[in-house]
Amino acid sequence: MASAPKRPKAAAGSSAPGSGGAEPLSGFLAWCGRAGVQLSPKVRLSREGAVAGYGMLAAAELEPGEVLCTVPRSALLSQHTSSIQALLREGQESLQSQSGWVPLLLALLHEYTASSSHWRPYFSLWQDFRSLDHPMFWPEEERRRLLQGTGIPEAVEKDLANIHLEYSSIILPFMESHPNVFDPKLHTLELYKQLVAFVMAYSFQEPLEEEDEDEKGPNPPMMVPVADILNHVANHNANLEYSPQCLRLVTTQPISKGQEIFNTYGQMANWQLLHMYGFAEPYPSNTNDTADIQMVTVRTAALQRARSEAQQRLVSEQWDFLCQLEMVGEEGAFVLGWDEVLTEEELSVTLKVLCMSEEEFKEYKEQDGWEDDSEEEENLTLSNEALSRLKPPCKQLLYDSVLLTLESYRSDLKAEQDLLHNKEAYEKLSQREKQALHVRYGQKRILHQLLELVH
């Protein structure tokens, strides 16, 4: 089943400021020609035939390895190509931030609102950014009601705090020092928040070269015209490839005429897709879906089964030691996939340590957490088959932790299944309710699968 679009776009015929009221797609395609963007005659951009919004469709049969689009680096919109690139380069020291997005966001603030911007036809694909429906734009009550237990409300709270901090401490001072370019009455916090969502949903980050991975931070995000029109599914059929002169969109499998062409944003769980892109894939489409067990939930489960104060003290000591080993943290989570535990070392060591007797733990501490290599390797492999072979105490601790995790949701798995299987009731749901349902249902399916494995 195809996913919902990664983001809504303006309806055909609508226009962004400065687009002159022309049909946005035709104006954008003309701009692509002028900018040197080469589109294969075997594809077309259209609203018709895409899962929603604009999409790229095959106009002819395509084989793996065919180049669908070539985008020269001069056509990318980034802090290095914006008309205020010199200004951003000059102020780069004052634009450092946790996200690393501030220079691009300032470029977007300017280009989106400048009547003479080179990028106007690109922006005309969106009437405005208010149509973006990331959970950060939902009322807090609705976010809590629909997404409690999924991890999204907590992620959104951090996002909003960072957005407000960046705007007040970095963006505003920079704008006030350049009043001939920026106007806080026009370049508002609300527009900034919309542009953050725009960057979340549309931008690309070029992978680092292998030799640079340990020495350099991630590359800054950039906007890639045409490539960002493609929607996402886990089972995608195209990839974006990077070279020094240009970026190329290339097929990865055969595509039939009329079929939509999908990119991938990486191996992303549904909660990440909804949080960052505003949509989730319906079950069972997202083979990359995951569920989290908060690390502190496992500690809680261990404390609950401790039958004496001495056992509770032992659990606390074991937890502190796990923190020293950097296996756990107060805000960390164990990540479960459909076929295996993705944080296998952390979960394996945590279960083993929290299930040790006082004598076993004393000996383990004396060895600083080291053990025989073959035994360690065996313990750290947590496929579904390996989970079913865990020692009984570890199984019970994991089982109790899953039950506690399931209690954090507002509804149980059966309620979600009944809603999904009742077509009439499902169709009455709002788009937000449907997306939240897909996130909750996938997570609960994974958690219930784990219950069966360790029962």
Compact description:
The chain has 18 helices and 10 strands. It has helices at 24-35, 85-90, 102-113, 120-123, 140-147, 152-176, 189-202, 270-277, 295-305, 309-324, 344-354, 358-366, 373-380, 384-387, 392-406, 413-421, 423-427, 431-454, and strands spanning 38-39, 43-46, 55-58, 67-72, 231-232, 238-242, 246-251, 260-263, 291-294, 333-336.
Mind explaining what this structure looks like?
- The chain is built from 18 helices and 10 strands.
- Helix content is 44%, strand content 9%.
- By secondary structure, the chain is of the alpha+beta class.
- It has helices at residues 24-35, 85-90, 102-113, 120-123, 140-147, 152-176, 189-202, 270-277, 295-305, 309-324, 344-354, 358-366, 373-380, 384-387, 392-406, 413-421, 423-427, 431-454; strands spanning 38-39, 43-46, 55-58, 67-72, 231-232, 238-242, 246-251, 260-263, 291-294, 333-336.
- A hairpin with an 8-residue loop joins strand 2 and strand 3.
